[in-house]
Amino acid sequence: MIVYGSSMSPFVRKVLTFAAEKGIEVELKPQGLQSDDPEFRAASPFGLMPAFRDGDFAISDSSAIVAYLEAIKPEPALIPAAPRSRAQAIWWDEVADTVFVNCMRKMFFNRVVLPIFLKREGDLAEAAHAEVHELPPLIDFLEARIPDSGFLVDDRLTLADIAMVQPFVNFLHVGASIDAERHPKVADYIAKIHARPSIAQWIAKERGFFEKAGNVPNR
Ligand SMILES: N[C@@H](CCC(=O)N[C@@H](CS)C(=O)NCC(=O)O)C(=O)O
């Protein structure tokens, strides 16, 4: 099975983490933004990453891909079967992919994608505004909702956690830290899930990229 894209994308990393937690082996075929590689385009008609292929079946969109992975290998179950739990897991996936990623994009695009990948100037004022005004209320929101178990749904790891921690990898890449005094649950939650081998391997690779001279995100 092939995943097309870059792990720097929270959507691509979500699929890679999900596959690893399932014990499904996938090969990552690197693609840049709006790649015109025909193999990638055949799986992703709108040019968005991730795209995915399993033999003669191709699909894109991270949520569609993880639904496929869950269906072909039901255990361990990462998308709960019980109606309310399933709805909650899908809701968290959606909140992560939209509300949190929209804030993250302003920071990551302007501090990393534009200056480092596309060699264009980023709007650092927009990034700073998102970090100071948009991110703290989102972290407040999450702080109020993390159960004592440390998992968002059913007191065990599900798609909800796998999706929610992805934008935080990118927040941390661009220097936005979690204040453990104000947000102790979020700080602990993110650290614990980011330490799981399924995601830690990608975080380490991405950090390695930024540690190379000249790849330090602007603030
Ligand atoms: N809903 C999609 C979003 C995919 C997406 O927006 N990917 C970004 C990278 S983070 C992309 O490919 N952007 C290229 C573009 O907007 O042209 C998913 O969950 O996979």
From TrEMBL:
One Pfam family it belongs to: GST_N_3
InterPro entries: Glutathione-S-Trfase_C-like, Glutathione-S-Trfase_C_sf, Glutathione_S-Trfase, Glutathione_S-Trfase_N, GST_C, Thioredoxin-like_sf
Record EC number: 2.5.1.18
Domain GST N-terminal: residue ranges: 1-77
Example of a GO MF term: glutathione binding
Alphabetized SUPFAM superfamilies for the sequence: GST C-terminal domain-like, Thioredoxin-like
UniProt xrefs under CDD domains: GST_C_family (cd00299), GST_N_family (cd00570)
Residue stretches making up the GST C-terminal domain: 82-216
Keyword Transferase tagged: yes
Entry protein name: glutathione transferase
Organism: Edaphosphingomonas laterariae
Organism placement in taxonomy: Bacteria, Pseudomonadati, Pseudomonadota, Alphaproteobacteria, Sphingomonadales
